[in-house]
Amino acid sequence: MSATFSIQPMGRFAGQSQPVKRPKEIACFSYDENHEFRLDDSSMKYYYTPQLGVDLSKGFNTFQKLDDSKDEHLDSLLKTIMAHEKEAGKKIDAHVVTWRGMMTKIMAALFEQQDGFEMNATLYQDCIFIEENNEYKVQSRARENHRGPRRGPPLDVMQFWGYKFETLSTLPNPWAETSREYIENRENQIVNNKEQYCSVVRTGIGKSTLCLGGEVDAIWDSKPHPGQPINWVELKTSAEIRSPGDMDNFHRKLMKYWIQSFLLGVPKIIVGFRTRDGVLVEVKEIETHNIPQTVNSRQGARWNADMCVNFAAEFLEFLQATITEEGIFRIRRHPSSPTIEVFKVEETGHGSIISEEFKNWRIKL
Ligand code: A3P
Ligand code: MG
Ligand code: MG
Predict the structure, then answer these.
(1) Which of 17, 33, 258, 318 could form a disulfide with 306, with the two C-beta atoms 3.0–4.6 Å apart?
(2) Cβ pair 343, 330 in contact under 8 A
(3) What global pTM score does this model have?
């Protein structure tokens, strides 16, 4: 059993965007400072403007870094969906359940030539569950780390800058409950990326209803009544823009920023611009919904948001037409390949994609 989805010719995805639903948070969970799962919003952070001039490398030697080589499958997402279903007394209605990161890779595939990916998918009770193929992730990280000599700071230090910026820009409690001392000394806080807040949303692209789980970095104010849009904030760092070439690169990066934020309904992105050696020099607020226009209005735009949506809508329909029986399927794109392949790797069962706990719950329902 195998099928191929062509990315080329791209032109067929042009035109008006297929309908999209506004993402609505249906549940959430947190990982605490030891990366232990909690069915609550305890790790949610509050945005508060960072101080400029800070060296983002400061504290690298005390970084509490998550070991992300472990395969966590969809376990935390399924735990949270299960709790939501117990409360609602019925199954969620999604055609596809996955991490936001997987959907980002799919949606970016049309314009992202270099990136390959591998995912595992299984059909269970009329819904396709998709996880990252962990082996592939670990191997591609290793390849990246061993690519020949490069200029500039080590890769792990540069990665730390992103988490440092999060610590500099957030508070663990609302501003009114935070001391001035804490706010002014955030540059001395220990950076810990084991702690996360994850939002679980129901959303739609074209004819498909999706349930996505993904990390959100911070909230602007506080959570409104259930169902109302939430003022989430996505935090990003980027090299300061000094030339037209830098601007070009930044506009290309905006695609991933936009897709990532669009999928969870994050309305605002805060970019911390840094010098080449990692000093925070400027902070800019970007409205997610303005990004497609901003990019289109530039000459030689390299991507188009409507085309990303149309591509994703068609790919999701293809997936549902392809994965119609039990077993495990691989979704694979080789770097630079003009196709995405879907083929069976296990004839029966659901592997470790669906946890035992989730199966036991669904059997009873
Ligand atoms: P920056 O985005 O500021 O570079 P996110 O932006 O998704 O909230 O992720 C937070 C940080 O995790 C990133 O900060 C970056 O440091 C690191 N990160 C995320 N995705 C990564 C990837 N694919 N490779 C390396 N680092 C990554
Ligand atoms: Mg994040
Ligand atoms: Mg971020």
Answers:
(1) 17
(2) yes
(3) 0.98
